Amino acid sequence: MSLDEFEELARRAPETVWLEFIAGRLAIKCGPDGNRSEILAWLQRVFAQDDLGPWLYPFRGLRTEVDGAGRFRADGALAPARHFAGHGEWSSPEGVLMAVEVTADDVDTDRHNRVEKPHGYAAAGIPVYLLIDRDDCSVVVFNQPEDGRYRREEKLPFGAAVKIPDPVNITLNTEPLKEFVD
Predict the structure, then answer these.
(1) What is the pTM of this model?
(2) What Cα–Cα distance (Å) separates residue 36 from each residue in 39, 63, 71, 101, 180?
(3) For residue 107, what are the domain limits?
(4) pLDDT digits over 55-95, tens only?
């Protein structure tokens, strides 16, 4: 399937069906369950404490991978306030500070969230990728993208203080995540 064919299919899909184009393949993204929604709402509250700071935009379509050949619908995209004003469904990753994914109860979660998305976000130059992994109750911070890979990866258990490096520069107390494990 070509990128143009994917975008046409994505435009015609019902609002309840979220499509992604990962590593040249069509993927269907699971919608949020209640706990996944609560995790994203918790993160939005964390970042909303500073009126002038960045905002976490849920389910933002981003052009990813090498030369923008992928289309990921990030569970969250951290960017300056009003960053996506005037954008269409798929935005350039330029200016995005961090992409966030929360694992879903989905057979493709391992391949998509733990393998393909770190590569795609790094190739797009997104400085930080935060994976909230409900399967093993951990938070993984990927950073320092270089040559299509993140050079650094740190995995910590739910409950730990997780340092999110620049350009985000925040420490998350992940204790509340323990409430949202399926």
Answers:
(1) 0.92
(2) 5, 23, 21, 10, 7
(3) 32-180
(4) 999 999 999 998 889 999 999 999 998 899 999 999 999 99
